[in-house]
Amino acid sequence: MHTDNNQNRRKPNAARFGRFSSAFFICVQLSASVAISLFLFGCTSAVSSGHNTALDSIDLQAMTSQMAASMLASPAVQAQIAQTGPLRVVCEPVENRMTGEVLPVGQAQAYTAQVRALLSEHAPDKFTWIMNRDEFYALRGRELAGVPLGPSPDAVNPQYALAARFDSLTQENVKERSSYYLCVYRLTDLDHRRVLWSGEYRVKKNAVKGFLD
Amino acid sequence: MLQLRRRCVFSLPPLLILMALCGCQSAAEAQADQAVAAYFQGDYEQARTLLDPIARKTDENFVLNNARLGSTTLAEYHLTDAEDAFLRAYEVINSVGVNNGGRSLGAALIDEKIKVWKGEPFERAMVNFYLGLIYYMQHDYGNARAAFENALFKLRDYADTDKPDSFTQADSNFVLAYLMLAKSWQRLGEPEKAQSLFDQFVKLRPDLAALADARFNQNANLLLVVEWGQGPRKQTAFDGSIVGFGPKPESAGPIYLPRVIVDGQPVDTEFLARPPVDLLALAQDRRWQDIDTIRAVKSALGSGLIAAGAVESMQRNRSQQELGLALIAGGLLLKATSQADIRQWEMLPRTVFLIPLHLTPGAHDVTVQFPGGLGQTWRHLIAPEKTDDTYYIRPTPWNAGPYQWPPPPLRSGAASAGP
Distance between terminal CA atoms of chain A? Predict the structure, then answer.
């Protein structure tokens, strides 16, 4: 009788253990499988999912479109074109005065070159674009056959310089990084140091740090 | 018994695959290890050849391999390649949410190595420092300034936002960037900003006041950037789930000071050739992060399950044995997935000396010597009339020189470097 009682007591225990171990095995199998799936399929590339507070291609498009339109619509620029004909303009790369933001040479050139490209397309008869001396010789040095470089900077004297200066206020701490940008473009008369046109683009960016940042 | 076997058979493959994934070294990682070994043997070309293809893979080691590639290409004066490599690392380091989605979950649940390596704050600061140095060497002071500023931002991750003093503490450990930032402002024609930074530098490190003399820096026409020693090493403790950096500065011994010999004559650099940073000390500031807690909890839980499983599996009852095995399997799984991420940027030195010199304009033979015989000699380093040219020197037992300036990558003029 005593033995039977023990056996009866053991049976529910055994059944409970059996159910628990089954559930545990299933959990182990499931979690391992999920983990492998995550490992194999869930990981994005190091450059595809992050974002930062740097100026990006959207800013490039917005900024240069705004600047090209503003420059073209400027009464002072229009008056000068009416008076002297197409303006001979040299493009300078952007001067980087941003706090904690590197602007490599290629990007620094792109921000003014894009304005040049837009104005060349939309107002080809109003500006004659002269390539920056450094850029010209760098391209010629690379012997890019078939790429029209335009007149040599030494052969044509530019009247105006299209330059830009980017400034920013940047703060970073454990929790976030924020940057406030002020990008100023200027068309300057090289002979008289007179600013014929000036335009600015402002943008604020914020990146909140999270787990593993 | 049959049921137990069946369960074991179904559970084992995923477990084994998972453990293999966590524990195995990939071919790219093995290649990176070979490159690091080549770097320390002074074979920079071999190191670059090995690192170049893997640094282009945008996997979890993207930043790390680019930092390694940057160190290697900088040492052999491939400045354009070094700039590209550090710039790639810089962009990801500056980004947030790089590990969002599968990587965060994977790092927490499976293996921390799944996360994209962005380095500890001192490693991030050094990426920015080297990037700034490369721009400075190429006389691109605007970008040099930006990179040095960013180096200081990165160290703020050590600081406690609720304690204003902790920013000062973090900054004072990395006055290296302050000095180069001041020099960059000076070269950009902003003496007031430069002076303010020199003053801050002296306030943080009065023992290095001679290095921050504005007039001396303005007149200096040759800057030696000399690296010495081995940087911090990641070490694990307990069962591999706790990570820290070693050795501690006190156990690694003092930093040796260099002697500078120009054209055969020793130059008095007693107050200049002093270490502005000790990365071993800086690495000790590592913060405990959420992922460390997750690892520690997983490891403790794993130990508990294994112990409980061992007890259960010794019982006579088959069901209890089954449960015991299940607990052990679960415990092993947790243990396997709680290993700390010990990836690190091995090429970092212990310190970087900044030695500005004012020499007669022209070519000079320069030797940097450390006690114990370590040193490097360069012939015909150029000290220009205006501005300063910067030379990066990393002496190892295998590269004492003498080397002829300019080094091969700069001879063609393709890199358009300043020196």
Answer: 66
In angstroms, rounded to a whole number, what is the distance separating the alpha carbons of residues B353 and B171?
17
Q: Which residues of B touch A210 (CB under 8 A)?
A: 96-97, 100
Q: Are strands A160-172 and A176-189 parallel, antiparallel or unpaired?
A: antiparallel
Residue type, B13: P
Q: Which of residues 321-380 of B touch A (CB under 8 A)?
A: 322-323, 325-327, 329-330, 333, 337
- Are the Cβ atoms of B157 and A29 closer than 8 angstroms? no
Substitution target in A6, A10, A21 with the highest count of B β-carbons within 10 Å is A21
Spell out the per-residue pLDDT of chain B, length 419, in tens: 555 556 655 556 666 666 565 556 788 999 999 999 999 999 999 999 999 999 999 999 999 999 999 999 999 999 999 999 999 999 999 999 888 877 888 888 888 888 999 999 999 999 999 999 999 999 999 999 999 999 999 887 766 656 655 555 566 678 999 999 999 999 999 999 999 999 999 999 999 999 999 999 999 999 999 999 999 999 887 777 788 898 999 999 999 999 999 999 999 998 888 999 999 999 988 777 777 888 888 888 988 999 998 888 888 788 888 888 888 888 888 888 888 899 999 999 999 999 999 999 999 999 999 998 899 999 999 999 988 999 999 999 999 989 999 999 998 654 433 33
| Residue B280, token pair as written in the block | 């071993």
CB-side exposure of B167: number of CA atoms within 13 Å?
10
Chain B hits for A13, CB-CB cut-off 8 Å, are 319
**In the numeric block, which tokens belong to residue B14?**
């995923």
Asked whether B254 and B305 are in contact (CB, 8 A), the reply is: no
B96 → closest Cβ in A14, A27, A213: A213
